[in-house]
Amino acid sequence: MLAASEYPPYMSSQMADGGVAVAIVREAFRRAGYSAKAVYLPWARAVNQARDGRLDGIVGLWTTPERTRAFLFSQAFLDNHIGFFKRREDGIRYQTLADLKPYAIGIVRGYANSDAFDAARLHTDETLSDASNLSKLAAHHIDLALIDRGVANYLLGGSLAALAPKLEWLSPAVVDYPMHLGIARRQPQAAKRIQDFNRGLDAMRQDGTLDRMLKQAKI
């Protein structure tokens, strides 16, 4: 049993495939001869239970020095692209974050932003959710919304579809976080499970399955 959390389109108990990250992990394990299932928990609890060995692993882990001491990490199977959405009508462009000092940037309260973003000391405006952030952008209450590109595309293709014609991604991303499967070092056969998972993932890359799944998810 693998830990996951509610973070659509990557992970969600409300999505038919469990979210694209869970679907990729399940398929890679299937090709390696395993039957993998996910249980959806609040993120901090998911990490703790996987680290303590109460669950077999965790889907969607980013690497940090602390986590590297506790987990073995698989090959990355997708990237979280964190950056800005803007209104299509606006001509905002940037090469460095300092170029964005004139603008009000929407962020979500409680989210950890990248060190580079925090160090730029830009004008930020907090809200309670990614959906609220995009809504404020469309309503001209902010100039840019800091958001994961896949999350934004998911919202704009669903509950916020009416806003989709008004908003677009602004390249480049502020930061890209590779997403991994993590298995606690204390788990019996942890290294073998990671090796087997990577073997299944390599097969998905070679036959195009991984690329097709990522394109379908629009991340």
What does this structure look like?
The structure is a single chain. This protein is of the alpha/beta class. Helices cover 35% and strands 26% of the residues. The protein contains eight helices and nine strands. Strands 1, 2, 3, 4, 5, 6, 7, 8 and 9 form a nine-stranded mixed sheet that branches. Helix 4 links the parallel strand 6 and strand 7. Helix 1 packs across helix 7. The mean pLDDT is 96.
Percent of sequence in beta strands? 25-35%
End-to-end C-alpha gap: 26 Å
Q: How would you characterize the largest beta sheet?
A: 9 strands, mixed
- Overall body shape: globular
Structural class: alpha/beta
Topology as a string of helices (H) and strands (E): EHEHEHEEEHEHEHEHH
Helix content: 25-40%
Report the count of strand segments. Answer: 9
Which regions are unreliable across 5 or more consecutive residues at pLDDT < 50? none
Tell me the Rg in angstroms: 18 Å
Average pLDDT, to the nearest integer?
Answer: 96
Number of helices: 8
Short description:
With 219 residues, the chain is of the alpha/beta class. It has helices at residues 20-31, 43-51, 65-70, 115-120, 130-138, 149-156, 190-206, 209-217; strands spanning 2-4, 38-40, 57-61, 71-73, 78-87, 104-108, 123-127, 144-148, 167-184. The two termini are 26 Å apart.
How is the topology of this model organized?
Elements: E1 2-4, H1 20-31, E2 38-40, H2 43-51, E3 57-61, H3 65-70, E4 71-73, E5 78-87, E6 104-108, H4 115-120, E7 123-127, H5 130-138, E8 144-148, H6 149-156, E9 167-184, H7 190-206, H8 209-217
Parallel strand pairs: 1-2, 1-3, 6-7, 6-8
Antiparallel strand pairs: 3-9, 4-9, 5-8, 5-9
